[in-house]
């Protein structure tokens, strides 16, 4: 019998340390993104996180899926969550793959697919925005890679949900001048009337 579809909100996300343990030994780029990336930068969990997001290069999906053998993988896009067959690659327009823990019946991690290279990070909403990956990915003392805060906030600027506003307010005092300048330019290009511009 085909298992019932897992509800979209059935999240029991791993801590980033667990994800790093499972991905250790994979010599390809990946990093934690979203709110967890900011908290790895802060060095403390500033708020609860309902999910865990990471990015990998699109061409590396099969490699990372192989490191999660107990997962069932689902392509996410246009408000739909569709199961992927064994070894199946999502359509080109799909940029998210949710990982379902089959035994526990919950979602563990959201793998975002990016189109950069091992050396170059590319902003998926505007591919003309790109920087060396070494400048955009930091690593915690215990070896967890995470996206630089200015890039995380650029993604969050689009939505301005309560948690995004809280994350920005928490991060702003810690951003150095180059980080603020880069973020301000990028937000001004994408959202010219954005309320964060004055604060930056």
TrEMBL record:
This is Amino acid transporter. It comes from Shinella curvata.
């Amino acid at each position: 019998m085909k298992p019932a579809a897992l509800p979209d909100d059935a999240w029991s996300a791993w801590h980033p340390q667990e994800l790093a343990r499972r991905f250790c030994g994979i010599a390809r780029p990946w990093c934690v993104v979203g709110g967890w990336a900011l908290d790895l930068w802060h060095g403390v969990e500033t708020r609860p996180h309902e999910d865990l997001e990471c990015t990998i290069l699109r061409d590396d999906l099969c490699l990372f899926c192989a490191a999660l053998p107990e997962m069932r993988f689902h392509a996410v896009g246009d408000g739909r969550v569709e199961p992927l067959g064994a070894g199946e690659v999502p359509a080109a327009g799909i940029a998210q793959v949710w990982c379902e823990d089959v035994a526990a019946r919950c979602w563990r991690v959201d793998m975002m697919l990016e189109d950069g290279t091992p050396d170059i990070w590319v902003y998926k909403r505007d591919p003309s925005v790109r920087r060396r990956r070494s400048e955009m990915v930091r690593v915690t003392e215990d070896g967890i890679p995470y996206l630089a805060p200015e890039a995380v906030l650029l993604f969050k600027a689009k939505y301005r949900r309560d948690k995004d506003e809280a994350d920005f307010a928490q991060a702003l005092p810690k951003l150095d001048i180059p980080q603020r300048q880069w973020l301000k330019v990028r937000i001004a290009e994408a959202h010219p009337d954005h309320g964060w511009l004055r604060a930056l």
